Amino acid sequence: MWEQVQQTVDFITEKTNFTPEYGVILGTGLGSFTDEMTIDYILPYSEIPNFPISTVQGHKGALVFGTIGDKKIVAMQGRFHYYEGYTMQEVTFPVRVMKQIGIEKLVVSNASGGVNPNFQVGTIMLIKDHVNMMPEHPLRGKNDERFGPRFVNMSEPYSVKMIAKAKEIAQELDIVVQEGVYLALQGPTFETLAEYRMVKAIGCDCVGMSTVPEVIVARHMDMEVFGLSVITDMGDAENIEAVSHQEVLEASKKAEPHVRLLIKELIKQY
Ligand code: HPA
């Protein structure tokens, strides 16, 4: 894995000659964030050695290099999901690469199903913690100390300072945000009513099929992480019938302008 990462890093640095500070992973329906960037380079995943290729509708597959204000960024337009059949090592490979090209701060976004009754479709939830219920762990197997330690402390998976800054910015911009705990399940089925009830019962606010593997690997390498989830459907008896990929795409599109603005300002100001 280490050698593969180095090979990919060599390719990228040769192509781009760019030292970014921020990595951004754009979730379902949020790919247009790159419109906020002054773009220098776009590398389609298909051209990057050792990169998997994303297969889901609504996900573009490219690394986009550019700036916002005076901050240099690499955005992942489209991520890799475990349910697509990739291994956890493949799902998290781009995060390994990001760290090795110099990125210390990672911003992740996703769409999720809400179970907190104070939420509604379109709620922007700052992720303050997560519960990992994916069936495989990205750090299972022999540990390579060059990446990070065997046993990773997870007391602050999401940067408290970045959350505080994002809340301050949201208030200034009049964007309503909530905070909550994200539960990761593998999908690709949406949850049954009993499963949504479980999500709520174990103390989570929303459920989705991504993000947690990337965050674990980022923390393995001691990156500072900020995460945000758009509630695209509500997992309760009244609303469960409406849950579909179409609803998810439409709801995330609607929330997109606020999400874009929030992430842009956070990157500029933090
Ligand atoms: N469940 C799991 N993943 C999701 C959901 C959901 O309800 N909505 C968007 N992604």
Which SSEs are present, and which pair or pack?
Blueprint: H1 2-16, E1 22-26, E2 38-44, E3 62-68, E4 71-77, H2 88-100, E5 105-114, E6 124-132, H3 160-173, E7 177-184, H4 193-201, E8 206-208, H5 212-220, E9 224-234, H6 245-269
Parallel strand pairs: 1-4, 1-5, 5-9, 6-7, 7-8
Antiparallel strand pairs: 2-3, 3-4, 5-8, 6-9
The structure holds hypoxanthine (HPA).
Question: Could you characterize what this model shows?
Answer:
With 270 residues, this protein is α/β, with parallel strands linked by helices. It has one domain (2-269): Nucleoside phosphorylase domain (Rossmann fold, 3-Layer(aba) Sandwich), CATH 3.40.50. Helix content is 31%, strand content 25%. The protein has 6 helices and 9 strands. It has helices at residues 2-16, 88-100, 160-173, 193-201, 212-220, 245-269; strands at 22-26, 38-44, 62-68, 71-77, 105-114, 124-132, 177-184, 206-208, 224-234. It has a 5-stranded mixed beta barrel, surrounded by 4 helices. Helix 4 (193-201) links the parallel strand 7 and strand 8 (206-208). Helix 1 crosses helix 2 (88-100). The radius of gyration is 17 Å and the shape is globular. The two termini are 32 Å apart. The mean pLDDT is 94. The protein binds hypoxanthine (HPA). Hypoxanthine binds at residues 111-113, 187, 190-191, 207-209, 232-233, 235, 243, 248. Residues 111-113, 187, 190-191, 207-209, 232-233, 235, 243, 248 line the site of hypoxanthine.
